[in-house]
Design goal:
- α1 packs across α2.
- The N terminus is likely disordered.
- The N and C termini lie far apart (37 Å).
- By secondary structure, the chain is α/β, with parallel strands linked by helices.
- The chain has one domain.
- Helix content is 27%, strand content 23%.
Length: 222
């Protein structure tokens, strides 16, 4: 299902571009996790880690279901797994929020970093900061790949407020975020219609990274 266009056996430090099927399936799993997590959100004070845990549990429950589509056999989901990085060992290894891994040759991973979007919590600054989008730009996460994704957990205000606000701030911070292009709307799956895409140069890595931005509405009365 997933074919690396450059080599049959991907290098340890470079997998290559993802296929459209892998990208679509990873997005579908995130959507299933989101729908499954919604029933557990009772207020707007859930920490980011709790929401990520709900999403991971919902995905795993769907993968274990007897009526799960056959393609699901090719995937596993990991919550806060440590990843390899030169100079980091043990607990010092970086830990992205979610990884959806393909269980095929090369073990491709779709890496997701998540941030809460709540006005009283400096949501946009944290989303774009060194522990958010910056993790992909500085090569901390996804250095083996050409793309990854940010998850925004909306807990206040309308989704359009965050969509517009984050895009405008990215444009304002263009040099600091090494922004090379911004597509205000993309559609990988119909269930996530407000997704968008930014491209960034990376520190110490010759290849740019394409970051898909997925905003999930977790307002209790949303």
């Amino acid at each position: 299902m997933i074919i690396n266009p450059k080599t049959v056996r991907p290098e340890v430090k470079y997998y290559g571009p993802f296929s459209e099927a892998f990208r679509r399936d990873a997005h579908t799993l995130i959507y299933w996790g989101y729908k499954g997590a919604l029933s557990r959100i009772k207020n707007d004070s859930h920490p980011e880690t709790d929401i990520t845990g709900y999403i991971a549990e919902a995905i795993n429950n769907r993968l274990r279901a007897f009526d799960c589509p056959v393609w699901c056999e090719d995937f596993t989901v990991k919550e806060n797994p440590p990843v390899q990085r030169d100079g980091c060992e043990g607990r010092r290894r970086p830990m992205p929020d979610l990884i959806i891994e393909g269980t095929i040759t090369g073990r491709p991973e779709y890496i997701f970093e998540a941030k809460r979007l709540k006005k009283t919590d400096f949501g946009i600054d944290k989303y774009l900061g060194s522990d958010g989008l910056g993790c992909f730009i500085n090569g901390k996460y996804a250095s083996r790949y050409d793309e990854a994704a940010m998850l925004g957990y909306i807990q206040s205000d309308f989704p359009t407020y965050w969509l517009t606000g984050i895009q405008e701030r990215i444009e304002q911070m263009k040099p600091g975020l090494s922004l090379t292009s911004l597509r205000q709307r993309v559609e990988i799956i119909a269930e996530l219609p407000d997704e968008w895409l930014s491209e960034h140069a990376r520190e110490g890595i010759e290849r740019p990274i394409f970051v898909y931005h997925i905003l999930l509405d977790f307002r209790p009365n949303g």
